[in-house]
Amino acid sequence: MFTLVVIVLVIISVLLIGVILLQPGKGDLSPTFGGLTTQFGAMFGTQRTMDFLQKTTRALIIAILLLSLLANKFLLKTGDSQEIKPVTQGAQIPKTIPSPPPPIDVPKE
């Protein structure tokens, strides 16, 4: 079931990328991507096209959010995992500090 949700999330994410790229911005890259916004504008009207793209964007974002929460809350198996403790926890503190190694004599040339 988790795999199915992940596949649906990937498909929705790709659709969201496409819908965002179709929306005209300040630079208006829509002619670069085939001018689909212009075609939608001719079919629906410019304002209705913008409303449709904005509503589709919101719906896809909400779907991603809900599916992500569903996958994390209900589909991931947490089990009874024990807390990982650091290696040094419970180790004895040494009572004496080890002495530093003796200095090395450097030969003079």
Structure, explained:
By secondary structure, the protein is mainly α. The chain contains three helices and no strands. The longest helix has 30 residues, at 46-75.
Task: List the main descriptive attributes of the protein structure presented here.
single chain; 109 residues; mainly alpha; 3 helices; 55% helix
Q: What is the compact description of this entry?
A:
This protein has 109 residues and is mainly α. Helices cover 55% and strands 0% of the residues.
What's the structural blueprint in terms of helices and strands?
Blueprint: H1 2-22, H2 36-44, H3 46-75
Helix pairs in contact: 1-3, 2-3
Give the class from helix and strand content and strand pairing. Answer: mainly alpha
Mean pLDDT: 77
Fraction of residues in H or I helices: 55-70%
Distance between the termini: 75 Å
* Subunit organisation of the chains: single chain
Rounded radius of gyration (Å):
30 Å
Count all strands and give the number: 0
Biggest sheet: strands, sense, closure? none
Helices and strands, in N-to-C order? HHH
Regions with little confidence, pLDDT below 50 for 5+ residues: none
Put simply, the count of helices is 3
